[in-house]
């Protein structure tokens, strides 16, 4: 029913929350490395690319409904891949989508679990964990760091269990039933912005006075401008959610306005935290929450805990999106819900304290996330300008695919280039995919040197 679907404010808030996550915490260090001006420019450029990608993908969904005559159908991300790119591409897309959303979810799980333990230690003086290998025991920690139990430990903490109970419960609900938690998350995010500003602003003024520079401990142009490229690409992971959000939006809602407003709102947040954090904490940490907690001030503590609780409600959105797309491919709702909601937590349960697993998540993001969030949607948008059917097509049926993949691809490119939106999708795709390849090369080179 329309009354159960998202309105303008709900879409805006859900998009903001989905883009808010652990990537925000590393921005001060990244801005200090690349410089304030390159940092702001890169984040703004990527915000614009993300906005345009969302627009052309939403247009592709409309084109799909018109050309298949399924005006009331809800097309998920994998449906679009099958219809416009073929059944093989659907299988590749669901694997990439599951890896992307799973990596985002587990990265957020790790930050949330660690921060909840730190919050328990700040409030109660200690936190507990259960070690399950090489022997079973109940451990406790009084360390005020964000890794109170250390790394490479075979154990699960109280913070992890609390987060798991909340997120699994929300993940078992549908997307629209998560509206209230998203409003709470947004309010907590606003609280984080206010109190982090109150905590950092005096320190920023002090840093500028001490260094006799408006940039404090950092500079307008840093020593490593390329360091911002990967961060800019991977901090706007909203495009993959567009088909599901559009399917659950009320008729007549300005969906494009809500998503664009959210993207530029998040850009403002990124620029604020990146700039002011770099002025104060340049090169000190890749997690701005840690020095705020260690300062043990009222504003810093409130900001830290508000951020932690703010990123809990968006976490189940990733698992819900996995479930919905798996269900479209497999047609098995129970199995899809299990794989989407429980498997990420089961993986994190045994591996979230492992440094090696952290590296795996980083490389998954580098190698998969950008292509899933930009290359595939833009390819779908360009391909949607080709004729796919003149009669109604069941979204669960495989589209006929009698020609080779390359022949179909080249034909779609020619037809897309004849259309204004298709041309935009193609140009954006070439540009963004080139950036992604550059990011991979930079990271491979950095790893090789290290």
Structure, described:
By secondary structure, the chain is mainly alpha-helical. Helix content is 70%, strand content 3%. It has helices at 8-19, 27-34, 36-68, 77-85, 87-124, 158-171, 179-211, 227-234, 242-247, 255-281, 289-295, 298-310, 315-330, 333-351, 355-383, 405-417, 420-449; strands at 127-131, 137-141, 155-157. It has a three-stranded antiparallel β-sheet with strand order 2-1-3. A hairpin with a 5-residue loop joins β1 (127-131) and β2 (137-141). α4 (77-85) crosses α15 and α15 packs antiparallel against α17. The radius of gyration is 22 Å and the shape is globular. The termini are far apart. The relative contact order is 0.20. Mean pLDDT is 86; it is low at 389-393 and 395-403.
Strands, total number: 3
Shape: globular
Rg to the nearest angstrom?
Answer: 22 Å
Q: Order the strands across the largest sheet as they lie in space.
A: 2-1-3
Would you tell me the structural class of the helices and strands? mainly alpha
Total DSSP helices? 17
How would a crystallographer describe the biggest sheet?
A: 3 strands, antiparallel
Order of helices and strands: HHHHHEEEHHHHHHHHHHHH
**Into which percentage range does the β-strand content fall?**
under 5%
Mean pLDDT, to the nearest integer, reads 86
> How many angstroms does the end-to-end distance come to?
55 Å
Low-confidence stretches: 389-393, 395-403
Percent helix among the residues? Answer: over 70%
